[in-house]
Automatic annotation (TrEMBL):
Pfam families noted in UniProt: AMP-binding (PF00501), AMP-binding_C (PF13193)
Signal peptide (UniProt feature, chain positions): none
Stretches assigned to the AMP-binding enzyme C-terminal domain: 427-506
Domain AMP-dependent synthetase/ligase: residue ranges: 13-376
GO molecular function: CoA-ligase activity
Keywords, sorted A to Z: Ligase
Alphabetized SUPFAM superfamilies for the sequence: Acetyl-CoA synthetase-like
Keyword flag 4Fe-4S: no
Taxonomic source organism: Thermomonospora curvata (strain ATCC 19995 / DSM 43183 / JCM 3096 / KCTC 9072 / NBRC 15933 / NCIMB 10081 / Henssen B9)
Domain of life assignment: Bacteria
Protein name from the UniProt record: AMP-dependent synthetase and ligase
């Protein structure tokens, strides 16, 4: 591949392994790399016929599945910019996403017809999208897009800093922001990950008979898109499903015998707490990213299945920054609890509140030089704070040790200021997860007249625990105080049936109403 258009990744696979299956669906359908490229070419023609050109944004409000792969690469072929929107959004959330990103065309799944009927989005052209080759009639008054035919369409040249996609952050606090990412920056990130994973940043390094990768995260999420593009970059096929589920995962594992996985911590949680055993035989490792994974959860998984968990640190805005590989583990370089070694080629600094770079061992904000993002398209002020002079300010607090290993402390915005002390929710959560009757936990800061804020723990309890809520709450507070400084211990425990998750599957940290009751200390 000589250019920077992301569509050239697929075109390269169509040339060097065109007859190899490149895409699989849950229902048994599959397509070779050549077929994927040709159908994407048909999509490119359909988009062009609908008036879409280079630089135009195209909203994709589609139920997760293999069809999105055709639309992503079809848009990239003509230099258009996909705006990937969660199909779980309601009419109001969809309208907000459209207003933030101003797409020239919105492609909406026919299976979300009830949302289209309630949608109020004046000024945007909407075309409904059904199964390939099935035109059907209009949905909610919107004519269908005719697609599914095959055509050879070469990707147009694009500049490295050209906008490639608009992704909504899967952030755990506040409302999602629309992040603009670039073709060149995405390729930089893929090469970096390929280098540390396979030893080379050359494309097509995987054997043509390598097993496909499961794209466990949705394709509206940066993790899902990067997993798809990484699979194609190294030359593996991809299995795309509608959504995660333990039974669905087990069926696909038996069918494809995957040798690696990329999961969110919440997926590991569901796997660990499932009654059935999953067929992890032959799986070399599981990569976990998107959110910190607790020691207890990691240990429970590794003890049950004998498969090591590797971690990767990065974000939609910054790309891949640090992590551990299987080679690191074998070489004895792994440091438990860390985010990982900073990847070769990553320029990273730890900065204080005045923007000064700090020496090893001192805590500050993690700042990375990156050309991946052009900022937030919907928030100029936040965008200016995010990217300054080519450096992305992650909002994460951490430090780098003398061996170049990155350690995370917490999120700048999640920090709780309790009586003048800084309290990081993740530290409390890791301690409480060690308790035998805690299934999961989230810690939030709540307003307090005396201390400013207090840490409050929302706990999913083990239903078999022989204690009342009040008794268990008292025990958990005492448990934390035995293991943490007094000011860090939660002042109150509230029990919830489950923890709220974002559309991408992360544990949400959005504040919830402060109910009365529960022990306060």
């Amino acid at each position: 591949m000589t250019g920077t258009n992301l569509a050239e990744i697929l075109q390269a696979r169509a040339r060097d392994r065109g007859s190899v299956p490149g895409l699989h669906a849950e229902d048994g359908r599959s397509w070779t790399f050549q077929q994927v490229d040709l159908i994407a070419g048909g999509v490119a023609q359909a988009l062009a016929a609908a008036g879409v050109g280079a630089g135009d944004r195209v909203g994709l409000y589609l139920v997760n599945g293999p069809e999105i792969v055709f639309f992503l690469f079809g848009a990239w072929k003509i230099g258009a910019v996909p705006v990937t929107i969660s199909s779980l959004y309601n009419a109001e959330e969809l309208a907000e996403s459209i207003a933030k990103t101003d797409p020239k065309l919105l492609l909406a799944d026919v299976r979300r017809a009830e949302v289209l009927q309630d949608l109020k989005a004046p000024g945007v052209t909407i075309r409904s999208v059904g199964p390939p080759g099935e035109t059907g009639g209009p949905v909610a008054g919107h004519p269908p897009l005719e697609w599914g035919h095959q055509a050879h369409v070469e990707a147009v040249p694009v500049e490295p800093d050209a906008e490639s996609c608009i992704l909504f952050t899967g952030g755990t606090t506040g409302r999602p922001k629309a992040v603009s990412v670039t073709h060149g920056g995405t390729l930089d990130s893929l090469r970096r990950l390929a280098k540390v994973s396979t030893g080379t940043d050359e494309q097509g390094s995987a054997s043509p008979d390598a097993k496909p990768n499961l794209i466990a995260l949705p394709l509206f999420h940066s993790g899902g898109q990067h997993a798809l593009m990484f699979a194609y970059f190294v030359g593996r096929g991809a299995v795309v499903w509608e959504r995660f589920g333990v039974d669905r995962l087990a069926a696909l594992m038996e069918r494809f015998a995957f040798d690696n996985f990329f999961f969110l911590p919440t997926m590991i949680y569901d796997i660990v707490h499932a009654e059935r055993d999953l067929p992890f035989t032959g799986v070399k490792h599981v990569l976990v990213a998107g959110q910190a994974i607790s020691w207890k959860l990691r240990r429970d998984f590794e003890l049950r299945y004998g498969v090591p968990i590797l971690v990767n640190y990065g974000s939609t805005e910054s790309g891949h920054i640090a992590g551990w590989t299987g080679k690191d583990m074998k070489a004895g370089l792994w440091k438990p609890g860390s985010a990982g070694r900073i990847y070769p080629g990553v320029e990273l600094e730890i900065r204080d509140e005045d923007g000064r770079a700090l020496p090893p061992g001192q805590q500050g904000e993690i700042v990375v030089r990156s050309r991946l993002t052009k900022g937030y398209v919907d928030d100029a002020e936040a965008s200016a704070a995010l990217v300054r002079d080519g450096w992305v300010h992650t909002g994460d607090i951490g430090y780098v040790d003398e061996d170049g290993v990155l350690w995370l402390v917490g999120r700048k915005r999640d920090m709780i200021k309790c009586g003048g002390f800084q309290v990081w929710p993740e530290e409390i959560e890791d301690v409480l997860r060690e308790h035998q009757y805690v299934r999961d936990v989230r810690v939030l800061g709540r307003p307090d007249d005396r201390l400013g804020e207090i840490p409050v723990a929302l706990v999913v309890r083990d239903t078999a625990a022989p204690l009342s809520d009040a008794e268990l709450a008292e025990e958990l507070i005492a448990f934390a105080r035995d293991r943490l400084a007094h000011f860090k211990a939660p002042r109150r425990v509230e029990f919830v049936p489950e923890l709220q998750r974002t559309a991408s599957g992360k544990i949400s940290r959005v504040a919830v109403p402060d109910p009365e009751g529960g022990p306060r200390r």
